[in-house]
Amino acid sequence: MIDFWLATGLLLLVALGFLLIPVVRGxxxxxxxxxxxxxxxxxxxxxxxxAAQQSEGVLSAEQLEAGRAEAARELLADTEGADQGRxxxxxxxxxxxxxxxxxxxxxxxxxxFGASDKVELTREFATPxxxxxxxxxxxxxxxAAQPESAEGMFFLGRTYMSQNRPAxxxxxxxxxxxxxGRQPEVLxxxxxxxxxxxxxxxxPEIQALTDEALKADPKEVTSLGLRGIAAFEGQRYQEAVxxxxxxxxLLPPDDPSRAALQGGIKRAADKLTAGGGxxxxxxxxxxxxLLKVHVDLGAALKAKVQPGxxxxxxxxxxxxxxxxxAVKRLTxxxxxxxxxxxxxxAMMPQLKLSNFPQVQLVARVxxxxxxxxxxxxxxxxxxxxDTTAPQNLTIDSPDL
Length: 400
Hints:
Strand content: 5-15%
Distance between the termini: 43 Å
CATH topology of the largest domain: Serine Threonine Protein Phosphatase 5, Tetratricopeptide repeat
Structural class: alpha+beta
CATH class of the largest domain: Mainly Alpha
CATH architecture of the largest domain: Alpha Horseshoe
């Protein structure tokens, strides 16, 4: 931050120079004008003396004219080279007053409308935090500096939840809804924060939040998990099993939370059995999708690409969200190559290959390493997500 203020001070000095230099020059011009006025006064006095001597008969008319000519030459010699006087100028106090007010006014306006806090935050986030408390403090400052950032509010709310501060988290999630709209994920997080802030007491407000979230997205994972917890705490064990089994079906096979969730389902089932009930059979879980893809470059492109260029191979829904469902990254030097895209490569639990009936395969060469835009691309026709036959994909078209 010190270098920022040093640069600011340097710019202020430059601005003051533009204001004060004319004042210094004005003083020099004023001295020239004063000397010129004195010479003119002496000239006029000399002319008056010559006229008086001529009227007394001391000088003849020819001598009078000769004296006037000599006085005029002396005046010209004395004033030659002097700067021409200014017709008009601002008073000298005005530039001096401006020299004082400009930096003061500029600093005041910057502190009010400027972004010094954002500059400092950018410098802080460039270095990793040393503790969770420091990270929380940075997020709090970022939210205060950017109150329109829904992402900042959301992540700060999640941080508060991890620190067992559900009331603070609920306040942040409520603000996030105001800025970003009633997104299902935020609704689920708000319901969860309010549930734990109220000492695990289910309420009509929490019910309404989870209802809204699951209506907009039946696969909203936080709401499903919360409904299962609330059902278990309320001794509605079959309901807890149902919600947790729905959540389990959405998680990737290697998700670390699967073991805890399966343990919760078993405890709920045991409680149900101990009470004389019989757990309902779990719905058959859809088999995980696995697509085998062989990728190669078109013959005409092999001379136009570089070995280090990135190659992104991904599957996306033919009808649905535009983001990839599964992604692998290689380089041109790795081609030709065979890769597998499966549910374990999902970027989000809700966006698995097996959740969409038809997908499209895409392979893109990007010199800049950008998965969304490159130089060359290859695309397949839509195919079923449960296709088992290997697919061939050739990169042979400009990426328009």
